[in-house]
Structures are given as C-alpha cells and as structure tokens.
Design goal:
83% of the residues lie in helices and 0% in strands. With 156 residues, it is mainly α.
C-alpha cells in the first residue's frame, strides 16, 4: 500500500491534477492534515516544475531536429504566440506567471506556467521562483477551499 503522503506528492506532479487534485485527495482519502496535504502537494508540484523547465528545451530541441513537419508547426505556433502576446507578457512578466500558476482553474498551473516561461525565454533561475510562488498561492487557495468545504459539511 502506498503511503498517502507519497500519493499526494505524486498526484501533485501530474499535469492535469496538480494541487487541484492532490490537496483534496490528501485531506479526504489520505486522511492527512491540512498542513501535511499542503506541504506534500506543494513540494511535489515544485519538483515537477523544475523537471519540466529542465527537460522542455531538451525534448523540444530533439523533436525539432528529428521531425521537419513538427519543427515547422512549432515555429508557426511560437512565432504567432510571441507576436500576439509578447508586449503584454513583457509588461507583466513576473505577475503574469505568478497569477497564471496561482489560479486553480483548468488550463492554468505550474505546467502551463513552465511552458509560457520557456516559450518567452524566461531564464530558469527567474522562472522557478515565480512559478513556485504561484504554486504556494494555489496551494493556499485550495487549502482555503477545502477547509471551507469541511466547515460547511460539518455545519449540516
């Protein structure tokens, strides 16, 4: 049997689940305290971010070098994205990354933040702390949501 701390940690590393799944799972099915669920989920999500930021350039370079059609598709996507969003991204870089990661909605999170940081050439030593800040904020939002749900359920 896998310990609930490890399950929470690993669930936070998944691209779809991240903290939105890990904290609720840890607190409900894993019977972890709020603080335990928060800590294991945040650390797992930050580790995933570091791995993604480190591996993304390597994997993309490999794929682009070995597939001309993929290279052309990626060039068009990158050029279009940078053309349409560079001005706003450069203006709000730090705040944008933090908010993108912190808002616990589909399509946001550390994976999206890592991809955006890489796409706009944000250096890892700058991107990782910004994304980690967003992760902590997202964790606090999820913690508040879960504690609110528990309090509401207890009042019924």
């Amino acid at each position: 049997m896998i310990p609930p701390q490890l399950t929470t940690f690993l669930l936070a590393m998944t691209p779809v689940g991240e903290l939105r799944a890990a904290i609720p799972w840890g607190m409900t099915f894993g019977n972890l305290s709020s603080m335990e669920a928060f800590l294991f989920a945040v650390v797992g999500n930050i580790l995933a971010t570091i791995l993604v930021i480190w591996l993304l350039p390597i994997v993309t370079k490999f794929a682009r070098n070995h597939s001309k059609p993929l290279d052309k598709i990626l060039q068009r996507i990158f050029a279009k994205t940078r053309k349409h969003h560079s001005k706003n991204f450069l203006r709000f870089e730090a705040l944008f990354l933090i908010i993108l990661v912190a808002v616990p909605l589909p399509g946001s999170g550390s994976y999206t933040g890592s991809l955006v940081a890489w796409l706009f050439g944000v250096k890892p030593k700058i991107a990782i702390p910004l994304i980690a800040t967003g992760i902590v904020l997202a964790g606090l939002i999820m913690l508040g949501f879960m504690n609110g749900m528990i309090a509401f359920a207890g009042s019924l």
